[in-house]
Amino acid sequence: MKNLHTQSIRELIKLIENRLISAYELTSYFCDRIQTYNSKINAVISFDKDIALDQAKQIDHRITKKKSSPLQGIPILQKDLICSTKFKTTCGSKMLANYQSPFNAHVVNLCDAEGLIEIGKTNMDEFAMGSSNETSYFGNVLNPWEHTRVPGGSSGGAAAAVAAGFAPLATGSDTGGSIRQPSSFCGLTGLKPTYGAVSRNGLIAFASSLDQIGPMAKSAEDCAYLMDVITKKDPKDSTSQQYDMQFVDYLKNDIPPKIKIGIPKELKNFTIDSSVEKAFGETVQSLKGLNVEFVEISLSSMELALPAYYIIAPAECSSNLARYNGALFGYRHEGDNSLQEMYSKTRTEGFGKEVKRRIIIGTFVLSKGFQGQYYQKALSLCHNLKMEFKKIFSICDFILTPTISTPAFEFNAYKNPVEMYQSDLFTIPANLCGLPAISFQAGMHGKLPIGAQLIGNHFKDHELLQLVHHFQKATGWHEIYPEDYQ
Amino acid sequence: MVFDAKIINNLSKLAFIDLSDHEIVSLTDDFNRIVDMIDSISDIDLCVDDIDAKTGPSAPLRNDIIEHTPFVDQIKSFSQFDENLNSFVVPKVVDKN
């Protein structure tokens, strides 16, 4: 059967239910695509066809008795910071290059229980620190839409893999935009769920108060299928919360009348590429066609979210990554040295440049002389930002912004880290406030897709998916595939 | 605040990361740019006086001092190194109950 990678999850489910294809055949098809194309884009770093097909055989055996869950037999790729016993979990780092987790993340257990087939792990920026996938120990990921461009980061491997048709679904994680920005660069739909909606148990931590696992797929409906699986309260994650929602069923409803979307007037203060502005304007028009009303809002703290993020995230990262010292996990410097030398040499050799940079920033902002000036102030700013969002959501349902101000940029495009950090401006506020936000394809610039972002109130993830689902039915942007991977 | 090689070197030692001279020069440049960016929140009045009400009380802070040898000696003093076992012998915990 041809072109299975362009079928929606709904269509793949029907093929399996009607016995037109087996889980084994479907898995084999996607594994073959990885084997054929992965050397071009380096999106998948752990892959074993035998492990994938063994799972598929078991699922086919289960299906012959009774098909009990919708996603039985559907292949999925997990981002390589989500612990799984089937493959190594490297975090894109030399530090964990040979790390085999002894347990599954909660998300992986839920996917296994549903009958999803884990076919591999995707490349990523080292410890999820990066916006371009240029910091992975395992090499750059290339954007399947144009190989001279980055796929975004840190979930760039997942985005490139789904865009290239290696799997219909992938998980990503989003600390400052790491699901949404690569989704924008690769023409996907990517949802950063409400903080607490998806368990972080088994997600290797970067910044624990901001990290969130979420789905990446071609369409909002495909994302909704995965949300139905992964939003289950987990007693092992104290921040996990109950989210009683049937996401796919909710999408079937019409959009409620009188939806109001706010557009921050502060967008005018930022340099936005003309191609993104054009796509943004067209998105507004398409949404108006769905009877959505637009209002101008003020999000005055938006600009300050960036410095606040680059204080809080490095602070948490320097604390979370303190555990990698050669004693317990992963890489260890061998030699006749003292305990402290072992720590230092292990960390010096095991971490890449960007990770070291962020750990040292974190060490600085948490140091005794500066904690009040930076870290405490950043936390206070987050509080103010949350209050501002609360006010905004009392007058509108969603906020619309570009996902990022440019289409996918070229490798080595930024000469210093601050230029790169500034590209996260529109995605960071949702993380600082724990809000759900979704990126979806809103246009094209030449060969490159352009994304737009909707931010919703806490636990309105289903409403975000529903609105984007109706937008996609009206526009069809999500049905375009990269030329060389059709 | 302007960062120089000495400050960067001290911070990297606190973080248990060794930097070469070349890395220190490169990181000093980056660091000054990054701190310029994050410094923009220093000028804003965020009512930091009532910060504990917003973010919860802060824990007491340790001094930013790199403690080397005493720390290792302290660990060693808790247990003797056994050449035959090639490991440190940790005293057995006695359960008084």
Structure description:
The complex is a heterodimer of chains A (486) and B (97). Chain A has helices at residues 9-17, 23-41, 49-65, 106-114, 156-163, 180-186, 220-230, 247-251, 274-288, 302-320, 339-350, 353-365, 372-395, 417-422, 428-433, 461-475; strands at residues 44-47, 75-79, 117-122, 169-173, 189-192, 213-217, 260-264, 293-297, 398-402, 437-445, 448-456. Chain A is of the alpha/beta class. Chain A starts with 8 loop residues before the first helix and ends in an 11-residue tail after the last helix. The radius of gyration of chain B is 22 Å and the shape is elongated. The longest helix of chain B is centred in the first third of the chain and has 18 residues, at 21-38. Chain B has helices at 5-14, 21-38, 51-55, 69-78; strands at 80-82, 87-89. Chain B has 97 residues and is mainly alpha-helical. At the A-B interface, helix 10, helix 11, helix 12, helix 13 and helix 14 of A face helix 1, helix 2, helix 3 and helix 4 of B.
Instruction: Outline the low-pLDDT stretches of chain B.
Output: none
Number of strands of chain B: 2
Helix content of chain B: 40-55%
Instruction: Compute the separation of the termini of chain B in Å.
Output: 57 Å
Quaternary form: heterodimer
